[in-house]
Design brief:
Rossmann fold; Hypothetical Protein Tm841, Chain: A,domain 3; six-stranded mixed β-sheet; EC 2.7.1.-; Dihydroxyacetone_Kinase; glycerone kinase activity; globular; alpha/beta
Length: about 325
């Protein structure tokens, strides 16, 4: 078994990583966003009299979620501890800060702790007179079959979903319209991820699971979950084909002529070299099926500390989503000119 020690981390106190990285994140926004309360970040320049988009989740996946706050992206984010959901009081303080009288959309990944805490936060916000609605991201094809999509985890597909919802939040006038578009973005997004090495939690420094050198973990979670299966170690071209087979085999119904956003994401320590080689293997397969790539993203945006691995996310665009995608956005984690 491969149980190499996790990479050394340049930190101060391993029990204060979430607080200190959050303070650094606020500084990285150069005054365009501000800290609110315990651990929430909110844009300074918010469109007045508009529905608000609030994202959130645990720290340790940087730059998401809290790095996706910005112009044309989320209005604010509630941040939890490393790999832990933000508690309800942080969700409430974030909702209060982003609310401009038109209600707030909570948009986050499908994990039990996040669902529970954001639901309690929504109840607390309702007590304060804030209208809250929720859309849950569940794009992980491997974590449940199409017949049980409501059980799927939210993984790297959150990046195009937040971008599309963020664009909608800059243009629509009602919370219901924002919910509709965010849900459409979720319905049109699928992800498959694989891992070759586990990540770790800074407080323990230990790997979150074990993985032999001759296998690849299939469908791992971004909180260090070991995944749902194993496949033999293989070449990049073979792996690209296997991942796309799983995406094509789902219920997204991709057909010739469809346009997509194609996101190749590193889970933390997989290098750009490997991502580009995988992209090289994937693109001819997409072209052979007549699928048009409207935009390619190759980056490490949804991470799990030093986990090695990659995910492919596909977002199918219709005319409405394509128009929203083409709007510019700017954040620490993702910027589109």
């Amino acid at each position: 078994m491969s149980n190499a020690n996790p990479a050394k981390k340049i930190i101060n106190n391993p029990l204060k990583c979430a607080d200190e990285l959050f303070e650094g994140l606020v500084l990285a926004y150069d005054g365009k966003a501000r800290r609110v309360g315990t651990r929430s970040i909110v844009m300074n320049d918010l469109r007045p009299d508009a529905p608000a988009l609030l994202v959130g989740g645990g720290a340790g996946h940087e730059p998401i979620y809290h790095g996706l706050v910005g112009k044309g992206m989320a209005d604010g984010a509630a941040v939890g501890e490393i790999f832990a959901a933000p508690p309800p009081d942080i969700v409430l303080e974030a909702a209060q800060a982003v609310n401009r009288g038109k209600g707030v959309l909570f948009l986050y990944g499908n994990y039990a702790g996040d669902v529970m805490n954001f639901d309690i936060g929504a109840e607390l916000a309702a007590d304060e007179g804030i209208n809250v609605k929720t859309v849950i991201i569940a794009d992980d094809v491997c974590s449940a079959p199409p017949t049980e999509k409501h059980k799927r985890r939210g993984v790297a597909g959150l990046v195009p979903i937040v971008k599309l919802a963020g664009a909608a939040a800059q243009t629509v006038d009602t919370l219901d319209e924002l919910v509709r578009i965010a849900q459409k973005a979720c319905d049109n997004t699928r992800t498959v991820g694989v891992s070759t090495k586990p990540g770790s939690i800074p407080a323990t420094g230990k790997p979150t699971f074990e993985l032999a050198d001759d296998v690849i973990g299939l469908g791992m979670g971004i909180h260090g979950e070991k995944g749902v299966g194993l496949i033999p170690m293989c070449t990049a071209d073979e792996l690209a084909a296997k991942i796309l087979d799983l995406l094509f085999g789902d219920d997204l119904e991709l057909k010739s002529g469809d346009e997509i956003v194609f996101f190749v994401n590193s889970l933390g320590s997989t290098h750009m070299m490997e991502l580009l080689i995988l992209l090289r293997g994937a693109k001819p397969i997409l072209e052979a099926r007549g699928i048009k790539i409207h935009q390619t993203i190759v980056d490490n945006i949804v991470t799990c500390q030093e986990m090695a691995g990659v995910s492919f996310s596909i977002t199918k665009l219709d005319a409405e989503l394509k128009k929203l995608w083409d709007l510019p956005c700017e954040s620490v984690g993702y910027t589109k000119l």
